[in-house]
Task: structure prediction
Amino acid sequence: MAKRVAEKGVVKEKRVVIRPDFYPQIKMPSGPELRRLARAGKITAEEQARMIMGQRQVTSVKNTSKFYVDLFRELYESRILEDTEMPLFTPPVSINPLFLPDVVVNGHMRTTFVEVKAISDRNKRPFFGHRQFAGYCGALLNNPGSKMLTGIFCYGGETYEKLYLCAKKKSHKEKHKCDNRCLVEKLSHSTNSLLVLPHNVLSFLLMLTYSVEMDQKNAQSSLGFEHYKRPYKAWMELLVEDFQRPFQTMQKILEHAHSHYLDLWGFKINDFYLEDLEARSVYSPDNLYCYSSRERNQRRSRFKIKPFPIIEYTTPCHSEWMKYFSEKLDLFLGDIGIKDIFYKREQRLAELRIENKEREAIKKEAKTEFPKKPPDDIPF
Ligand SMILES: [Zn+2]
Result:
């Protein structure tokens, strides 16, 4: 009773709505239409159905990523800008074609690069591409004072449904049109946590992890053949559950790794500046919503994003860590397994810069060759 009175007095916070730019989801055609498509493509109806399912899966993976990138931006952009420790001015970073972070926050004080991942509760092993992580390391080194964060969202639960399939019962009158509304509803209601990790923690985890070679094209996205690191489920759980004593959590992760014959090569845990690691847990706001489409003329719905815990690790001595990381760069990169790819990228970047400069120079020359005044004999 008392609670109800208290609730009455609460001023409702204004809704904050995210509107990710989702790819349209294709529909599974009805029986006759499916058979017609199959005949046209000279395949069986089953093959046609499997192909459409595959396309639906790719779309739902891409849209899941859009959902979480926008959610992270909404949750963090202003907070990153508020974070004014280490007052070092860094000019906005020019986007280079070899490095496309999910979010870049250019503050007055610093640039923060953000990589957003989504893992399902069942699997809990994020993918970190070698090339991608090399890109982040390069961006940090080339932009003094910058930071990197990775945000790992975990979704799903006991009543797990595949994101691209829907178990919703079809009523007799209206056939269920399984589109982005279903995806947004599932994600909005089943996001369990967000884990935020700084660069030194991620480097520590990735050094402890085996590399796997995978063709993501067949599995999930269209990234093609690449080397990945997939930190373990047990570590993800430790990081979420045991955040109160962050350094002990890192030690537990190392013990777990040792029991699987994984180690830090020539490094020690102290080399990662983890003793001063800080962690806290906060809840996502209660006023967040997501639209299933940007277009007003489409059938769209708004879903409330159920509050979930955010577990945030921070490294107070980030600048010391970066100094040490750059001093021992080749050893760190070598032991993580990204040294070759890192230097190839840097070389390619240098070439691109030269090409750009040449292009600029040519443009300039072309401009100066242009007559300043129009010749007198041009008839009007
Ligand atoms: Zn559905």
Residues 1-6, 84-89, 370-380 have pLDDT under 50 and may be disordered.
